[in-house]
Design brief:
The protein is of the alpha/beta class. It is built from 13 helices and 12 strands. Strand 1, helix 1 (16-24) and strand 2 form a beta-alpha-beta unit. The longest helix has 23 residues, at 234-256. The protein starts with a strand and ends with a helix.
């Protein structure tokens, strides 16, 4: 099996058929699709089941026993079932160009890459048009290179690029060797959001052959019903981000503590943590500013206490001061 495509799903009945149709249209045929259902309450799984025969045994549906509230756990479960030489994650509301898997597989084989990173792609609106009638919409590109390009092997330079936001986080930008993931025990931390940032950081630090490709192959749908885009109150938003902030910082610290490189570069290690925290604080900036400082402090204090922090008051105070100043 050449490729395992992992599709985490929760209430995606509006778009899942389009996603699966784009996979069915792939020019590469030696691949499997693992749909991992996070306890959907709509008709999405009926749609998935209607495609079982069309895929001729290449589509598997995995039902989780309880809702996890994010893509992290479903992706990890998909990895456990994956049989392909390479793994690729596709969001259930997105789709691929017809030649996407073939192009990515050929790049990986030709360059013996651990990770393929796509530097360009397409975006489309929320209208669920089927692939054969699809106008691929707006094209975006991070780099101007027209040929595949290996990332530097200099870890300092890679980390510097990560903390200056030169890598995009979404997992669907990466086509990854399954052996590389398992040999290095890489997976997604159990977080509601920003788990893709931790996953990406692990790839950046551990991949020997990290290949940038300029070919646009993925179509991201700008869907306002995603976990991070659903409208929340200010308090709900702060609670949502606070959990991510604490869990994510702990995951990064634990990961970096295993490497002599970060022990020898404590300033860089600190900058990684500062970057992650600043991203989360920026995401909830409007919510923080809409409440008075004492209310924000109480929310932080309550949530960090729930999460088992040994110094919830100090952490809450420092975050509040950082936001004020």
């Amino acid at each position: 099996m050449k490729v395992s495509v992992i599709v985490p799903v929760f209430n995606a009945e509006k778009y899942l058929g389009v996603c699966l149709e784009s996979l069915l249209n792939q020019t590469l045929k030696d691949f499997e699709v693992l749909v991992v259902d996070d306890c959907s309450t709509d008709n999405g799984m009926m749609i998935a089941e209607s495609y079982l025969e069309k895929f001729g045994g290449r589509l598997k549906i995995i039902y989780l026993p309880e809702n996890t509230g994010s893509g992290a756990v479903p992706r990890n479960i998909g990895l456990e079932y994956a049989q392909g030489k390479y793994t690729f994650f596709v969001d259930s509301d997105d789709l691929l160009t017809d030649n996407a898997l073939e192009e990515l597989y050929n790049f990986a084989e030709e360059y013996q890459a651990d990770v393929i990173y796509m530097d360009s792609g397409f975006t489309c609106d929320a209208e669920p048009v089927f692939p054969q009638k699809f106008n691929y919409g707006k094209w975006w590109q991070n780099l101007t290179d027209t040929e595949p390009l290996f990332e530097t092997e200099n870890l300092f330079e890679r980390v510097e690029k990560f903390i200056t936001a030169q890598y995009k986080w979404p997992p669907w930008l990466k086509f990854v060797s399954r052996d590389f993931l398992f040999d290095n025990d890489i997976n997604f931390p159990d977080m509601k959001t920003a788990e893709d940032g931790i996953f990406s950081f692990q790839l950046i630090c551990l991949a020997k052959n990290f290949l940038h490709v300029p070919t646009p192959l993925y179509v991201q749908r700008l869907n306002n019903n995603s976990v991070t885009r659903i409208k929340k109150t200010s308090e709900q938003d702060i609670i949502f981000r606070a959990k991510t902030l604490l869990r994510g910082a702990d995951c990064l610290e634990e990961f970096m503590s295993r490497f002599e490189f970060f022990k020898q570069n404590p300033n860089l290690r600190l900058r990684v943590l500062m970057f992650f925290v600043s991203v989360q604080m920026r995401e909830m900036e409007n919510s923080l500013r809409s409440l008075n400082p004492s209310a924000v402090y109480e929310i932080f204090l309550r949530e960090f206490s729930k999460l088992g922090s040994t110094q919830p008051a100090l952490i809450s105070y420092l975050l509040l001061m950082n936001n004020i100043h």
